[in-house]
Fold each of these.
Amino acid sequence: MAIGKKERLGAQFEVDLLRKMLLIRRFEEKAAQMYGLKKIGGFCHLYIGQEAAAVGALAAIDLSRDYTVGAYRDHGYALACGMDPKGLMAELFGKVTGVSKGKGGSMHFFDAAGHMFGGNGIVGAQIPVATGVALKCRYRKDGGVVLCWFGDGAIHQGSFHESLNMAKIWNLPIIYICENNQYGMGTDFRRVSSVTDFVVMGDSYGIPGKQVNGMDVVEVFHDVGEAAERARTGSTPVFLEVKTYRYRGHSMSDPAKYRTPEELEAYKKQDPILILRARMEESGRLTEAAFAALDAECKAVCDDAVKFAEESPEPEPSDLFEDILA
Amino acid sequence: MSMLTFREALRAAMDEEMARDDSVILLGEEVGQYNGAYKVSQGLLEKYGPERVMDTPISEEGFTGIGIGAAMAGLRPVVEWMTFNFSLQAMDQVISNAAKMRYMSGGQFSVPIVFRGPNGPAEYLGAQHSQALQSLYAHFPGLKVVAPSTPADGKGLLKASIRDDNPVLFLESEMMYGLKGEVPDGEHIVPLGSADVKRPGKDVTIVSYSKPVRMVLEAAEALAAEGIEAEVVDLRSLRPLDERTVYESVSRTNRCVVVDESMPFASVGSHVAWLVSRNCFDELDAAVELVSGEDVPMPYNHTLELAAQPSVEKILDAVKRVLYA
């Protein structure tokens, strides 16, 4: 993929990035509301604040040959991949029309045909799986690269370290993306990590890496695009630490008292939607009215998704015993 | 037919499947240059190259998960664990990912992968390296669990396992690799979920699988000398379980002994004994007996480690109990 400079991105492309981030924001707000109404149960990890990471990264790859494998905070990845919000909301509602037929829930969004491989609930357990998908790409020489997502909490799992080592000895086409939202559940990453610059972790396996401003979707797009090009053609895995921030608690039950209101407010000033919008408005590529229309469009899509989920049927009791074996 | 050792039969299965289908790859510790810790994969690196026979670091969780990801993306990996004891390092990958990926994605994924290696008590290896772990894996829906007792079954079941679209745990044994038997040449497939009557008899059914089958056949010989004809049913796969063959046998003999080298608590053996008790209740003339490993970690001392396992004597005693002899 030819990577242009920020200022040379087409206006329509920027609008698309903005729309996707807005859609995630509105979808997550709607999910929180539905959770409050007890339409959604269990664990529900919202992506609000981190939208630029998924949207920028997934815009930089081609899912017809590339893959994305993520963890349980997966609503943003699914929407950024272009999955239908109706099927996603229905999955949250546990309906049979959900993307995983209501058997997966919030943490298990998948689109096998669309190369979106989860949606995985065990912290760090998706990292070897993603590495295996990259092994397939290299074995088949199909030109595919894999985005492997995980958080600052997962980086201390053995699965991360084992995977990076093997990815490097076999030079697999994979980009390890640590979305550092700074809190592994309620624990500040600085309290539990021997290093605060996670790029060092990639370095220790001979894997090149860099820190990325995860609040700026355009920066993420460029950095992941460069990394993908390098992984695809340069015969090396790449590591990126995307610095980001989640506005909500770890899950719906978490009031996030382990951080200060001032910290949260400071991050909200660098909100990924806000900064892209401001940049576009300042340069005359977006009007207030156009933004309002975009926002209304995303809200309507989410309202439709809720309506679809509400009206969808429950699974049949016999579905309990389906999909166990191929 | 060829006379092959167990390891040669397993090697033939992998060799034939790798030749037939380029999506089959082998990965694990020492499988390539070292030719396999137990020489099962001997010669495969030379024949198929390092892209298909991959030596891994000692990172069971990592390479097991890598196999699972490759399977989700369309390959058919065979993951060799040097022994099942080390699979405990990888158990999260097998259970959280391989077993459940299909279900929690609403049927979107298949995970065609074989996890194989030696399992069960061996000799002089102590508690961490000598144990039967099949009951852990057999607990989970979404997995198949296979445990052959002869080289011919080993070849036929391994070929079927590699062709299966589900994750298969394939249990071998250090103590069996050198055993010889007649093995059909070329295409020989034993379907998963088919038990085999290894010896017909009318007086008692002895249900077993894997390594203890040999011991059970030895006990059946001794019983025959006393005029007792034991029917020996080899389960061959634990999931799916061929219940029908077991029930048909028990409905003819009216007596049943289950022999399993697992520890007895919540084990494959205790489950099979319960199934027979429940489903053959009207046909049974005696309570079902279970001969299992003892409920202890494996000791190093040879006398003690033999005492911790099923034996011909324990099997004979159990048969006598169900015959009230």
Amino acid sequence: MQTILRTPKSAAISLGNSMTTELFFVQLINGIQYGLLLFLIASGLTLVFGVMGILNLAHGSMYMVGAYLVWYFFGVTGSFTVSAVLSALIALALGILIERVLIQRLYNRNHLDQVLLTIGMIFVFNSLQSILFGNDPYGVAVPDALSGSIPFTDNSSYPIYRIFAALICVAIAGLLYYVVSHTRLGMLIRAGESNREMVEALGVNIKVLYTTVFALGVMLAAGSGIIASPMSSIVPGMGESVLITCFVVVVIGGLGSIKGAFVGALLVGLVSTFSAVLLPSISNMIIYISMILVLLVKPQGLCAK
Amino acid sequence: MIFEKRTERIIVPMFFMVALFAPLFLESNSFFVGKVTTIIILSIFVMSLDFLVGRVGLITLGHALFYGMGGYLFVILSPEYEAVNFWVYTLYICSISALIALVTGAMILRTKGVYFLMITLALSQMMFYYFFDSLEYGGGDGMFIFVRPETSIFGLSFLDLDDPQHFYYLALFSLFNTLVFFKVVLRSRFGRVVEAAKQNPDRTEALGYNIFAFRLTCYVIGSALGAYAGFLFALQFGFVNPSFFTWEMSGMALVMSILGGSGTIYGAILGTFTYEGLQYFFEHLTKEWLLFMGSAIILMVILLRKGIAGYLEKLLEK
């Protein structure tokens, strides 16, 4: 269970094994690509916490749901695009359902009750995964159009799908930025972050806003699972390992801050890919060490308000 | 009277009476004696966590750090094939863990809320990976304890830790002492300040109390007792491995303490027994016990506002 979301160590086929300029660039791209994916997952977590004040420990399970769904639909339909769209829609419905049936009952409770509820949800999702899909590891094939590699230099190349995934992450990040800073929904989200009561007093239906934000968070997590599925194996327990890494990301950046999640995700992505090559003996620990160092200097995270 | 509430005065004696006499009707090495011993040891761990989370307000997700420390310190410090004295090693393990808590606590207590939660998680994850990657301490397989300690005091020995029944009574005795200890601490002047600091840190600070020092002391106490529970657990099963340090361990203990009734101290016993009891029941009922377990937790958190202890208090208090 204690495996970090697979860092793409093996992505580049490189014949030289010393830290050459070439390897440096490959690792740099790997780190950025991994960081962008982490950002996509972490942004949902930090959004839900920032607006609703809910620490959703089941966020990693939503990532798992996305990956398993896309694997299932890929088996049925054979088309990655169709399965991705179907999975995202189901995730959206699931997000609305969870918020309406469960989360909504706990807005007036303390954080500990929310922790307990979301841990219960982790159990349920893990168990459903094992009942519905079994405990074998699965993989999703890279879509044909994106399956090649771009030659990098004479003896190394980089998979197209990873570049595509990074671009998708950038696109979604851009969209998220646009929604939060330039739309009415984004205005409400920002208002909800700074003063909940006032937003409600101004006649905004806060219930609908909360449901929207939670469903958006679930979509972001499940969407990351969908995007990551051709790059990593789909295994039981994948949700928990992602969850912990994401917590590190949002805490480094400052909880509730989307900008912080972006900075934190890139930092964690780069640090873990480079340490896997440069400091293999402590590469498992390094993200925690980074987090402690950041918190000792800035106890509220890098982009604290 | 250290037990302030009527519910405690009914539940606590009832529990210890049943626990005291139950093994007399069972065979010494029966499955249930061992199982209940484990649950009692876990209760000590959960209780020390409840003290920190529910009473001091230090929400930690890294309490397993000390659980693991308790086990590993024993294996590292004691000679491999020689029985050492249980009480002496209890003292060693608790003091060293207390020292670790003092040093780490002094660094991390500056952070608050979710940041504190994350930094404690980070510390326990780091220890997990340290022992997981270490060749010296058995890596992921952990290490065995070949000889259990002897328990003589001034040459008098009345406990044999190889006898499951004796071990059971040692665990029960420890649980009772832990409960009484926390109750006494919380009722003292010291405990009152801790309570005040949780409810209103600014005012308590304004009254001239150094909140940081109080919290640090509590962190040290809770951690040392958490380590003691890990030590007992390692002794019962005769091994230690890195899984002692996992965040799942901390999370499970947190679940048990909230389920029992956060901040009630005796609720830790209720929570641990309910959780483990449910798990045992569902495990024997179906292969998919996790589904039922998760659903039961979700139902309980929605229905019970202040855990099981809170529900009992509503029934029993006037």
